[in-house]
Amino acid sequence: MLFAGIFLAFVVVLDIALLVSLIRPGDERRQMIVWKASTAAFGGMVGSFVFCIVENCIRQEYEGMNPFTTLTTAATMYFLFLLFFKRKYGD
Question: Which of 6, 19, 71, 81 could lock 37 by a disulfide, CB 3.0 to 4.6 Å apart?
Answer without folding.
Answer: 81
